[in-house]
Amino acid sequence: MQQLKDISLEHWQGEHTQLFINGHPETTCPPFESVYRHSVMNGPACNEIEQIYQSIGLEPVDDMLPDYLGVMLECAAYLLEQKLPTEQPQESGKYFQTLWQDHLTKWVPKFANDLTSG
């Protein structure tokens, strides 16, 4: 833990920028499904994921793409913790399985590999 304290905040901010935002010559591991699966920002996965969010009554956040890993994991946690009021528990499980199997498992392992090797 002391080793982490000895590294400046500016260093960690630089690491964060290099890995997730604006690395040179390319960003090491952008936390967006579309980049990993379609090689573009705001790709087809965004529409699919946004439909899941709408189906369970979640509103998009204006400055966040629906395929951003943080948003996707927040949705997964929500689905695991909530019983949707108008649906059977199996329905919320169905949305979780769709999010997990059709989206997260298709790119997060590569993202994690890039993160650990980046």
Report on the structure:
The chain has a domain at 32-108. α5 runs antiparallel to α6. It has 118 residues and is an all-alpha fold. The protein is built from 6 helices and no strands. The mean pLDDT is 83. 65% of the residues lie in helices and 0% in strands. The chain is globular.
Helix-residue proportion: 55-70%
What amount of the residues lies in strands? under 5%
Number of strands: 0
Average pLDDT over all residues: 83
Distance linking N and C termini: 21 Å
Largest sheet: none
Helix/sheet category: mainly alpha
Overall radius of gyration: 17 Å
General shape: globular
- Regions with little confidence, pLDDT below 50 for 5+ residues: none
Run of helices and strands: HHHHHH
From the structure provided, what is the oligomeric state, counting identical versus distinct chains? single chain
How many helices? The count is 6
Tags for this model:
118 residues, mainly alpha, 6 helices
Give the topology.
Elements: H1 2-5, H2 9-21, H3 33-38, H4 44-55, H5 69-81, H6 89-117
Summarize the structure.
The chain is an all-alpha fold and 118 residues long. The chain has helices spanning 2-5, 9-21, 33-38, 44-55, 69-81, 89-117.
